[in-house]
Amino acid sequence: MIKLVIFDADKTVWDHYNISEFEAPLKLVDENVLQDSLGRTLKLFPNVRKTLEKLKERGVKIGMATWNFPEKTKAVLETLGLDKYFDVVISRDFPFKFIMISEIIKRLREQGMSVKPEEILFVDDRRAHFGNVWLYLGNINCLEMWKDVNDHMELISKL
Question: Can you provide one Gene Ontology molecular function annotated for this UniProt record (predicted)?
Fold first, then answer.
């Protein structure tokens, strides 16, 4: 049984490839679209909000492991009103997802939740990250967004 779902951000949760280049202030264009001060836009993929709500309803913990500057990730999540869904967000300026996932597991343990690798689902748009996740963290379930699933709501059926 999956107790923790961890999402990548760029090209997994939203359509932009690198929010670290966004410049403040950020403004909401509509519920699922934001724009930075230079006019760059970011749009949530369909059903992201609905999927996060369903996960929460089921009591599943939600994490984010993203290769972005932490202050940029925080600003985007807050502007979109998504920060309330995530129990732990680890945003680092390096690509090593297995380290970020380890940090998420550690933070949850500090909050009193123990989770085994097979109880974790990691969703990323790049399969390249999965090898080190399995090598260093064990039998974590990994799904490649847009290959293994084509809509965020499909993730619910994978639980």
Answer: phosphatase activity
Name, in order, each residue with C-beta under 8 angstroms of 9's C-beta and a sequence gap of 6 or more: 19, 64, 66, 68, 73, 76, 91
Domains in the chain: ranges and CATH:
4-14+46-157 (3.40.50.1000)
What is the distance between the alpha carbons of residues 121 and 142, in angstroms, rounded to a whole number? 6
* Residues 42, 17 contacting (CB under 8 angstroms): no
Structure confidence by residue, pLDDT tens digits, 51-91: 999 999 999 999 999 999 999 999 999 999 999 999 999 99
**Alpha helix stretches (DSSP H) within 84-142:** 97-110, 130-137
Instruction: Tell me the C-alpha distance between 159 and 120, whole Å.
Output: 10
pLDDT tens sequence across 4-48:
999 999 999 999 999 999 999 999 999 999 999 999 999 999 999
**Alpha-carbon distances of 147 from 115, 144, 150, 154, rounded to whole Å:** 26, 6, 7, 12
Our separate counts of H helices and E strands in the chain read 5, 8
Residue 145's Cβ-side half-sphere holds a number of Cα atoms within 13 Å equal to 23
